[in-house]
Amino acid sequence: GENVEQHPSTLSVQEGDSAVIKCTYSDSASNYFPWYKQELGKGPQLIIDIRSNVGEKKDQRIAVTLNKTAKHFSLHITETQPEDSAVYFCAASRSGNNNDMRFGAGTRLTVKP
Amino acid sequence: EAGVAQSPRYKIIEKRQSVAFWCNPISGHATLYWYQQILGQGPKLLIQFQNNGVVDDSQLPKDRFSAERLKGVDSTLKIQPAKLEDSAVYLCASSLSSGNYEQYFGPGTRLTVT
Fold it and tell me: Chain A contact for B63, CB < 8 A?
């Protein structure tokens, strides 16, 4: 089955700096890659996703890149703000159905003011 | 629009006791998911419903876990008997349908088994 690895497990940046979180996946048939943000005491919330027919997607300060050949994808957050502090999860799915989605272990991002 | 509701938010039980969690998905969402999130890990799918039918329960430990969604709306997840390793946050999510539609997660129930 799919295995998703996520790095780093913790990341601390200064406000205004950029943050990058990287994930690798094992199943070359995976074709949908969402990123979730989980704040303390809340459930994960989808912040951006990318499908395998696209190499990059951007939404304001957030961007995701996908390298299908290398089987890795990354989340980029620019101009970080303290409210970006949270745990971020990547995930991968192959079936077009959410039931085979596998999540990474998460990255705890801290943005210091 | 109201989000996914879950109750209780916290539960502490002793091992071998039973516990039940309740979830009310977003109105109109046909698909409902239960996830287990152990501390320091990502969510792991336990069971997925499409309306009141089970789509996938391959990762549900059926000797002790059960779930139902009788009328295709609310759902309950039960553990009986609980083990120490069941300590986790149990997340409910819903989506419009069963494809790669956005999943909306509830706040979760934090279960501690002592």
Answer: no
